[in-house]
Amino acid sequence: MEKTQFKINGKRIYERADELGLCSSPGLGVTRLPFTPESLRCEALIEQWMKQAGMKVWKDGVNNIIGRYEGKDPNAPVLLIGSHLDTVIEGGKYDGMLGVLTGIEVVQTLFDQGLTLNHPIEVVGFCDEEGVRFHSTFLGSRALVGTFTDEDLQRTDDAGITLEAALINAGADPSSYPLAKRNREDVLGYLELHIEQGPVLEKENEPVGVVSGIAGVTRFSFEVSGKAGHAGTVPGRLRQDALAGASEIILFIESVMKKYDPLVATVGKLTVLPGASNVIPGFVKGTLDIRDIDESRKESAINEIMKESREIASGRGIQVKFEEVMKAPPTYCSEEFTSITEQSIKELGGRPIKLISGAGHDAMAMAELTDVAMLFVRCKEGLSHHPDEACTEEDITAGAKVLLSVVLKIANK
Ligand SMILES: [Zn+2]
Question: Where are the transmembrane segments (predicted)?
């Protein structure tokens, strides 16, 4: 990516990410939960930078911060660019913030060049995507989509504070949240730049990739029941070891994952009972998380796992039971926006790598409202939700240039 026809200031984005990173509660990395003093400090900086870029700035009823850069026709549908400003506990400086900062930089570039596009642009810093404080999903973007509800306001954090009280305390007027909702016809689309949170771009040696969609997720809890017994007295041939059976099932799940690549399947949690060094495990409880952009491929994989697990269990004289506990459909990015993004990456000298996001993003919620597109920027070792999360200034610059190019193509039609 060597062409420099756009005057993106990547150094400014990089330094601003450092500055926002200081808006954190004490401890490792960045911890910025929503509606806290540190999140208000972060929003004050965002407000200042949005204003410098010629935007009109306001906050809505759930404390999303929005900057609007007027278009030639103020009544034309608006192009939204956004991401989230909250973090996980001991997270990094880029997950979320980078999408907001690059959006502001794109507008700053237009403003500096005195360019007004046909469509207005709004950069949105969503209040809460990670959902750490209120055990929620996409609080900020759901307010724009219109799926935020009165029940959401009654969610409580671990200290028993309701979301409503936290919003009031942060200076917001939660009763006005319905006004945040956008009408489909008023929105041209939604663009989100985000760090990849995975290792593919690093492996492909490309700074920027285009996201074709966000994988759907199915989660199961499972139980394997065998027979506990004395670790010294029950001969191997007479055992009904639940953990040995679960292990065989888990290895089979891994083989299914490899067969159906890019599907991913993870057993992330196991409880072994009774859980003593001198007792044969009689019972295992676990979780299975399966993600894929292709629903029918995911269903095939699930069917294979269920069938083979039962066979493994019956061969061992044990029982296995799976229960589906959560299912979220995949989100597909707009084909038009995706091909525009690929075009922009090529024009800027890159190779458009298509990626599937295995993690959830505000774009998932926004896809219920409008066409969405996502760009991923390479991050060091694919690391995220970690204090060592890192991006280079060069990669950030490359990402912002692609974003600007996409904005020019979409908002200037
Ligand atoms: Zn994020």
Answer: none
Helices then strands, each counted (H, E), the chain: 12, 15
Kindly state the tokens that stand for 51: 């204003």
Please report which confidence band the pLDDT of residue 384 belongs to, taking 50, 70 and 90 as the band edges: very high
Q: Which domains does the chain have, with CATH numbers?
A: 10-214+330-411 (3.40.630.10), 216-328 (3.30.70.360)
**Feature table: binding site for Zn(2+):** 84, 95, 130, 194, 385
Cα of 88 vs centre of ligand 1, distance in Å, is 9
Q: Say how far apart CA 376 and CA 10 lie, in whole Å.
A: 16
Per the CB < 8 A criterion, the answer to whether 143 and 125 are in contact is no
Would you call the peptide bond into 207 cis, given omega within 30 degrees of 0 as the criterion?
no
Query: How far, in Å, from the CA of 292 to the mean position of ligand 1?
Result: 19
Q: How far apart are CA 102 and CA 404, in angstroms?
A: 9
Q: Which residues are annotated as a binding site for allantoate?
A: 219, 278, 291
Ligand 1 center–CA 309 separation, angstroms: 35
The per-residue DSSP string of 59-98 comes to E-TT--EEEEE--SSTTSPEEEEEEE----TTB-SSTTHH
C-alpha closest to that of 95 among 362, 278, 400: 362
- Residue 398 CB: number of other CB atoms within 10 A? 25
In the predicted model, is pLDDT for residue 162 greater than 50? yes
Is 286 a residue whose pLDDT tops 50?
A: yes
What's the CA-to-centroid distance between 238 and ligand 1, angstroms? 50
CA of 18 to the centre of ligand 1 (A): 17
For the annotated binding site, the residues are 84, 95, 130, 194, 219, 278, 291, 385
- Ligand 1 mean position, distance from CA 278 (Å): 44
Q: For 94-124, what is the HEC assignment?
A: CCCHHHHHHHHHHHHHHHHCCCCCCCCEEEE
Q: Name the percent of the chain lying above pLDDT 90.
A: 96
CA distance 384 to 319: 38
Distance 187 CA to ligand 1 centre (A): 22
pLDDT tens-digit map of 385-396 = 999 999 999 999
